[in-house]
Amino acid sequence: MPEFPYLPQTKKDIDEMMEVVGVKSISELFSDIPERFEVDISLPESKDEFTVLRDLSELSKRNLTLNDMSVFRGAGVYKHFVPSAVQAIASRGEFLTAYTPYQAEVSQGTLQMLFEFQTMICELTGMEVANSSMYDGASAVAEAALMAVRVKGGKKVLVSEALHPEYVETIKTYCFGSDIDVETVAFDSESGQVDVTDLQNKLTEDISGFVLGYPNFFGIIENLSEIRSTIGENTMMIVSTNPIALGILEAPGMLGADIVVGDGQPLGNAPSFGGPGLGFFASKESYIRKMPGRIIGETKDNDGRTGYVMVLQTREQHIRRSKATSNICSNHAFNALIASIYMSMIGSEGLREIAKRSFDKAHYLSERISRTDHVSLVFTGPFFNEFVARFDCDLKEFNKELLKDKILGPLELERFNEKLKDCGLICTTEANLNEEVEFFAGRLEAIG
Amino acid sequence: MKKYAATHEWVSVEGKTATVGISDHAQDHLGDIVYVDLPEVGKSYKKGDVFCTIESVKAASDIYAPVSGKVVEVNEELDSSPEKINDDAEGEGWIAKMEISNESELDSLMDLEAYKKHCEEEG
Predict the structure, then answer these.
(1) Contact between A319 and B37 using a beta-carbon 8 Å cutoff
(2) Which residue in B36, B43, B55 has the most chain A C-beta atoms within 10 A of its own C-beta, making it the best mutation to test that interface?
(3) By the CB < 8 Å criterion, does B43 face chain A?
(4) Last residue of a domain, which of A342, A361, A386?
(5) What integer is the mean pLDDT of A207-224?
(6) What is the nearest CA distance from B55 to chain A, expressed in angstroms?
(7) Of A73, A177, A312, B39, which is least surrounded by CB within 10 A?
(8) Cα dihedral sign for A312, A318, A323, A329?
(9) B62 neighbourhood in chain A, CB within 8 Å
(10) pLDDT above 90 for A197
(11) Average pLDDT in the A96-107 region?
(12) Which of A361, A367, A347 shows the shortest CA–CA distance to A429?
């Protein structure tokens, strides 16, 4: 057996250890494993570090990353431009231990950052209080459903079918263990918005909350005021939103939302493989004790200086154990840090500009599509930066062709809803250059 | 008549109505009380049900209904001044008034002397 520089045991060490435990060879240690599990895993010959690095580098060159591509796909995770300063600031060593700051005396930087994050989320959503982040948009919306039940006491929540299907699945999973019924409300096949008649028919007294997307999964902007007056005061309105959209849309808090949640990935976080992102969670002050997650508060120390601490910890699992309001403690604080730096860098003007460009490009593209013969818009409702189109061709094949030109095409919706066969969800952001949009529009026009 | 539960609630009975709170001994152990999640007026609880949660700087503690019955009034003063429980747990710091549904349950509760002994034994 050759000796490896990174393995600390010498042959002598190993021989001594084998003697102590009473075996003659290493393979004897594995003698308890039944023979049927002994397979030849055919590992190649070992290579030196220099060769391995060169091989991996060659291999990585075959990857196609979003940076090299035109992306016309979103559906919950979005490619936006991120100023280089965001990563530079976030990479500072002081921030890299974003673990729960129990000891406030040594965690003022982290605590202040999370406090600022909460403040920005409140401003963005139009709500009174926010926590210092959740795992992602899906778990945030599921926690919101549980919170509605804590506040209202019913045992049922309604969920719009036009909410992201994976969010709906997550809500069902969270509610399953808590014996909470989840019922879906249909969307209007013409507008793409919540079917208000179906909503009215399903409203009963024991419904604690109604969850919907704003914009919804199809990019459509729901009429929150109408929904608010439909469900009445006994049911909480839970709004799952895209923070970038709030750059130009009215804040859900101003339209009667009781809880506003969403995925903060679009705020400076990389799309990666769909994560890690962060969830944000905001509500009204009167419900603060029913809110999940960590909340950071601002206070004064003995000498009257501003300081930051975790507050309302008695709700949390390290104190309330099994009766805790939620079991989220280690949040995605590092991703929240990135989001906070991004938001403070772009400011409210920048956010509006990014939202407007994302909106404009999508609307330009939809205009072009409405004039083609073989692609058509599916819904009539107002939309932000995503919309659904029906294709007169094999969408899967079309996407394969696009990929050859380094274009990530529309998300095929059939796997989420069979009514949406041949339909694709198209997305644009400010990161789509005008010539990319032109090129893509040309490809759509050439279908048929 | 005033009686105590082993879980440190007191009940003061007048006719069919019981005023309920936590004992002075309990408030002393909880420390500074910062929030009281009051029970709902009109709701019925069985003896031993969690009917209120008291949050102190140390912990959030469940308070159990010492007798079965319907809540007819809650001490709304506690919403803005939860410290009233620290100041006067067995007087102005009362939590709720209940309409007793089973008076015989009072027999299983302790009088002051027995309760004092119970606290000593608990340490």
Answers:
(1) no
(2) B55
(3) no
(4) A342
(5) 98
(6) 7
(7) A177
(8) positive
(9) 323
(10) yes
(11) 78
(12) A361
**CB of A320 less than 8 A from some CB of B:** yes
Number of domain units in chain B: 1
Look at residue A253 in the predicted model and tell me its pLDDT: 98
Asked if residue A44 belongs to a domain, the reply is no
Identify whether the C-beta of residue A227 lies closer than 8 Å to the C-beta of residue A237.
Answer: yes
Residues A358, A287, single domain; the answer is no
How many structural domains does chain A have?
2
A156: contact with B, CB 8 A cutoff: no
- Look at A314 and B37 and tell me if their CB atoms are within 8 Å: no
Does any CB of chain A come closer than 8 Å to the CB of residue B35?
Answer: yes
User: Does the predicted model carry a pTM greater than 0.90?
Assistant: no
- Report the distance separating Cα A92 and Cα A113, nearest Å: 13
> Quick check: A319 contacting B, CB < 8 Å?
yes
Nearest to A289 among B37, B56, B58 (CB): B37
Q: What sign for the dihedral angle of Cα A322, A326, A329, A330?
A: positive
φ, ψ of residue A350 in degrees (nearest 5): -60, -40
Of A302, A319, A342, which one is at a domain's C-terminal end?
Answer: A342
Place A3 in a pLDDT band, splitting at 50, 70 and 90.
low
Q: What is the mean pLDDT of residues A351-371?
A: 97
Question: Closest by alpha carbon to B37, among B71, B59, B61?
Answer: B61
Residues whose CB is less than 8 angstroms from the CB of residue A314 and which lie 6 or more positions away in sequence, other chains included: A320, B55, B56, B58, B59, B60
Whole-number pLDDT of residue A421? 93
Strand duo A156-160 + A181-185: pairing: parallel
* Interface check A289 vs B, CB under 8 A: yes
Confidence class for position A104, pLDDT limits 50, 70, 90: confident
Note whether residue B113 is domain-resident. Answer: no
A142 contacts A171 by C-beta, under 8 angstroms: yes
Mean pLDDT of chain B: 93
Asked if residue B53 is part of any domain, the answer here is yes
The 10s digit of each residue's pLDDT in A428-441 is 999 999 999 999 99
pLDDT in tens, A116-134: 999 999 999 999 999 999 9
Q: Give the ipTM.
A: 0.72
Q: What is the pLDDT of residues B106-119, one digit of tens each?
A: 999 999 999 999 99
B14 CA: distance to closest CA in chain A (Å): 32
Q: Is residue B102 part of a domain?
A: yes
Mean pLDDT of A174-193: 96
Which residues form the domain of B67? 2-107
